[in-house]
Records
---
Amino acid sequence: MSIIDALTTRNAHPRVQSPGPSASELDKILSAGLRAPDHGHLRPWRFVTVTNDARQRLGDLFAETLLLSNPETPQAQVDKARAAPLRAPLIIAGLLKYQDHPKIPRVEQVAAVSAALYGMSLAADALGYGCVWRTGTYAREPLVISALGGAPADEVIGFLYIGTRAGDAKPLPEVSSAEYVSQF
Ligand SMILES: Cc1cc2nc3c(=O)[nH]c(=O)nc-3n(C[C@H](O)[C@H](O)[C@H](O)COP(=O)(O)O)c2cc1C
């Protein structure tokens, strides 16, 4: 697949199943992301892979954050949060590891992590896997951030849910560049 084809046909695929990428495919996916543009080569990121039983531990944390913010959270909502990470055989959590820097503000560091996650999602897609980028309230929950190895100033920029595609691909939306591009 040419790079242009990969870029123009990338399509989030939320319904995925086992198997996930092999170890060598995962290495390719991670390497694709780690070549993201990054002002000052700060590497303001940390990527955490979640597979097998660790997905249940992540789900338990998701559920715990709901109950901490509202002990009356309906059971169905708690169960849904607990099961959320089981929707894919592989999750890559992309954390912003914010670094105070005189010339490189937070927004640029978020941009670098986002570019890395986008590169990983493109690589997963190009290898034939389904991938969807999710956040949800959990991405900003201190409990989740610290369990993934982050500090209070960090946050999860995205969870990539990756696996073998299940079901049909959704139609690609029509995008007209004229709508979003102008000439100065
Ligand atoms: C930062 C970010 C956070 C997102 N969070 C969610 C999410 O929590 N749940 C969700 O269904 N989609 C989320 N999305 C959107 C999907 O990843 C995807 O882009 C969307 O389903 C549209 O599909 P498409 O990218 O193929 O057009 C998020 C995207 C980004 C960039």
---
Amino acid sequence: MQAWNKISRMPAPAIKKMQDELLHKMITEELAVRHPYYRELFKEKNIDPAGIKGVDDLNKLPFTEKKDLVIPEDDPLHPKKYVLEVPSEEEQKPKKKGFALFGKKETGPDPSDYRFFSLYFTAGRTAKPVPIEYTHYDLENLKEAGLRTFDILEIDRDGTLINGFTFAPNAYFWQMFYSTIGIGSTALQTGGGKVLGMEKILKAMDSMEAPILAAAPGYSRFALQTLEHFGFSAENLERIVIGIDYSPMEAVESIKKLMESVGAKDSKVQRIYFNSEAKSGWAECAPDYGYHTNPDHILIEIVDPESGESLGEGEKGEVVVTHLDARGTVLLRCKTGDIATGGLTTEPCPNCKRTVPRIMGDIERKSMIYDLQGKDKTVQFNGNHLRKKMFAREDVLLWYAEINRSDSQDTLKVVVKGVSGADEEALYKSLQEELKADFEMPLKVEGSTLDAVANKIGLEKYITEQVIFDNRNS
Ligand SMILES: [Zn+2]
């Protein structure tokens, strides 16, 4: 692991050279030797590991798809195929030659780096969650990734932080946990709505005079909208860090406005993109400047989600991750199902001048793009876009949508609860008109009660709320 202040300022060619070396090392010294799945795959496909000299050779390797990772009914130990085997003590003896990468002492692999520490799961909304194994080595990398996000976000130990991410065995909650421990700041690990509940989270934010709240975008929005109802103040609140769930710029803008309207001291909103397959999350220094990745941990590719073809700088496509420095579960060219609308850039960040590759735009979920049966053709419905629209509506408190089938044509029903004091009838009407203009399908807006909508979306039950329900096969 290299010093972050050095990596984050390295020119793009030096980053590429570092990634070439790390990739070659990972493939020849780890995957080909002790990775059950890739070791077999290389043999089966006649891939010479030594022939993968660097990033430019990646296209000689197949993708790993989410479906490859899902645990089959009859093979509960399937995830172990993606976990590096623990090397024997014998292998640890010092090597005679081999270049010392960044001054690291070149001895053989240390078995303790490979021993199991914890399982964190991918957030499986549509697919089943997949266990990702972390060893102590990975835990150090997770802590380091956490400290780097805080460096990018400019969070130091002076600001009390309320961690409102849902407590669960996932990298999101734990990265935030380790980041606050790592910088030694005062932090309350609330466990999110599921554990502490909204009222107590808001009370803690108020009484601890916390300037920073970290929470999912929908939950942050709901917190600010219900603050007054619970009788708490946000006068010390300066910023909200959003992540875990879809966080388009519309969410940033909406939360900013709400912070201003409740009298927050400042109204800074920043984003983190957590990626379970990458075993960590990346922050933006300021909204829309892109997620600053860790090029020594993960290699990012952006590809066409259908053809798998590599795309150029700034082109919208699917985020593909390859571990360059991991133990436990290691993935090679793993298609994450996340679409980066602004692709990847290797240009230095115009805001903070860091040179690490940045993932640009909003991160859309491929699983939220539906093919619907239209009148005479298939119509594509992008649920991410509906969520974007709904973030921008200041008069909506909570909502969800249902996709239903009627007379062979699919229809959309949007159920809403307006903010307190909103003219509900006027809200349904204007929302119906707005959505009809945007989505090419029969669509109806209906009202409901706060409890009914909150229950349906699992506001304080799930890791993040579920807002789109596909009823066609149920
Ligand atoms: Zn930056």
